[in-house]
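Example (one chain per record):
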Amino acid sequence: MGKYYDEALIPDEMRRNYDVYERIESLGIDLGTFEDNVRSLKGGVIAGTIFLESGLIWMSGTGGGKLPLNEDTPELRKHGMEGARDTADALIKTLHWALSCGGEGDLNDILYTVKARGLAVTPGGGSTHLGPTATNGFSARWHSIYGGGLSEYAIDGLDPAGFAGIHARTAIGGHDGHFSIETDMIVAIPPALAREIILNRGWIFPLPPIFLDKVKAKHLQSNNS
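Predicted structure:
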């Protein structure tokens, strides 16, 4: 673990003792490259992530799945959950680069997940429980990385990694669209790390152009050293 996680206010009984990137690799999540994911905010309308000095990170929503969940069938339930899982992968990738692009931290520095929201596309109301059902695919992915009862590594409802993937949640349906679900997430990192990131390159990701140039130069120097 990094120095910020090690110094964070966490009960010893709830500390992680593994590298989350080992689980990410085992789950087949592709984090992509620096060049493809660390971009300029020039012309941007919304942020992917916002860092708060308190240590909270707010993430914008992302959509998943190709079909509206307008019928309660096994096929659509599976499609919705897989689409929600894919949105978790997309947010995890964004979060990795938001934390690590300047060399300050990485996904191991997340203390715990705070709040998830799943907005399922169930035109005309659909089946009211398909929102929570689909969102389970999103929650399970976070559990599998950071610990929780829905984790692929859980035995009898307990993950040996602990509980840092468990979060508060809102999951509803009734929306229209040509996809299945949109999800977003709030996570917590140590306040000291949040302050370092904000002082080094601002509170927003993608990066303002002046900070993108700074981060790119550091990345190039690191690769050439």
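Caption: The chain is about 40% helix and 15% strand.
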